Amino acid sequence: MNWDRTYHITTFGCQMNEHDSETIAGMLSEMGFTESLERDRADVVIINTCSVRENADKRFFGTLGQLKHLKKENPDFTVCVCGCMMQQQHIIDSIKTKYPWVDIIFGTHNIHQFPQLLSSVLTEKEKIVNVWEDGGEIVEGLPAKRLYKHKSFVNIMYGCNNFCTYCIVPYTRGRERSRKPEDILDEVKRLVADGVREVTLLGQNVNSYQGDGQTDFADLIYRLNEVEGLERIRFMTSHPKDLSDKLIQAYVDCGKLCDYIHLPVQSGSSRVLKRMNRRYTRESYLQLIQKLKKAVPGITISTDIIVGFPGETEEDFQETLDLVRQVEYDSAFTFLYSIRKGTPAEKYEDQIPENVKHQRFNRLVELVNSISAKKNAAYVGKIEKVLVEGPSKTSSQTYTGRTEGFKLINFPAGPELTGKLVDVEVTEGKTFSLEGRIAKL
Ligand code: 5AD
Ligand code: SF4
């Protein structure tokens, strides 16, 4: 059946969720739906949720509350919710009791069933809750409506086995499952044929990738590096505990692998890292960074840091500040520790008072930003290869793109450059981005 209706997707959370939303959009397009840019005008609204921190939970429930009046005005208006939050029974229970206008609840493991669930809700006017507890076989061949024409996310694995004590992901995304290397290569070749020049390989812990028992993550990079027409390879996220020498060597050998790594440290204190179950120490992390910087001169490095994990003392926090100074991250995502129901750290008794957390958070952000500004200022005068993404949100004459090191750069250009790799001279380094001008065509 071809549904002549519109949809709107609101996505919270990480790249994995963004990519899931692209798949949902692809399936809806195949069903004959068209995208509505305004949520309030769409016939079907999908909210793809994140549960990594409490803030995301709150924003979701706020959004859900806003949809109630639309349902009142138009009983055919259909509300679907999915994503990580739906993998938690207490969330499903609260939706059923407090937000009865929701029509479909599905989870992270059965996205492929969405067209079937939606068709039955639209024809039978029933409500459906269908959440799988864990992932079955990986479903290949799902369509995707890409956010960008020239760059794309590619899932290489799903789930996480690490069980960091603060983290909900192993419970919402299940155990690790890797896609077959052939399936990944086929997808990348198809994307390249469709104009994609840069792929970002996605997984909660990409370096645990175990394709077919013979292809590990570094092998996969070597194979992708051979794909003709592909220009850039990135990946997210790798865990410091199993970042191999072989992968570091891949940076040296594979010209298409961008000299950039996102390597979450979470804390600079070995004592806190142990309680987080991160399975590396401050010293081994710093050694890894040294190795990377030596093998790949100029590599840009970003990280995730949690402030105020239970039991974190001022000394522990000072160690985090000191590590940030030593590594000199190009950028860092900083998070206030947020208690997640069902994780081991929820039970830790030495939770840190909110005011202490906030005070440490502000100190960390100030340090991180000053380092970012300094590092970006050092780019002035350099020529960077930039994949042009398109006009910026604020002006049609200003174009944006990313450098190989994943820095956002703005420069005057025209539409003919979209999707091209161009040389841009950096004219200014700001805290969160660079400014530049086209160096040569
Ligand atoms: N509280 C705060 N930050 C968290 N993260 C994951 N779980 C929590 C939590 N409970 C952060 C980590 C991770 C990033 C995606 O989110 O830093 O790397
Ligand atoms: Fe969460 Fe740790 Fe897995 Fe990352 S590695 S998803 S922080 S459990």
Topology:
Blueprint: E1 6-11, H1 15-30, E2 34-35, E3 44-49, H2 54-66, H3 68-73, E4 78-83, H4 89-98, E5 104-106, H5 114-124, E6 128-130, E7 151-155, E8 157-158, H6 169-173, E9 177-178, H7 181-193, E10 198-202, H8 217-225, E11 232-236, H9 245-253, E12 260-262, H10 270-275, H11 282-295, E13 300-307, H12 314-327, E14 331-336, H13 354-377, E15 383-391, E16 398-403, E17 408-412, E18 421-429, E19 434-440
Helix pairs in contact: 8-9, 12-13
The protein binds 5'-deoxyadenosine and iron/sulfur cluster (SF4).
Residues 52-53, 166-167, 264, 266, 304, 306, 335, 337-338, 340 line the site of 5'-deoxyadenosine.
Structure description:
The protein is an alpha/beta fold. 34% of the residues lie in helices and 22% in strands. The protein has helices spanning 15-30, 54-66, 68-73, 89-98, 114-124, 169-173, 181-193, 217-225, 245-253, 270-275, 282-295, 314-327, 354-377; strands spanning 6-11, 34-35, 44-49, 78-83, 104-106, 128-130, 151-155, 157-158, 177-178, 198-202, 232-236, 260-262, 300-307, 331-336, 383-391, 398-403, 408-412, 421-429, 434-440. The strands form five sheets. Strands 2-1-3-4-5-6 form a six-stranded parallel β-sheet, with helices on both faces. The protein has a five-stranded mixed beta barrel with strand order 15-16-17-19-18. Strands 7-10-11 form a three-stranded parallel β-sheet, with helices on both faces. It is globular and about 60 Å long. The model has no long low-confidence stretch (mean pLDDT 95).
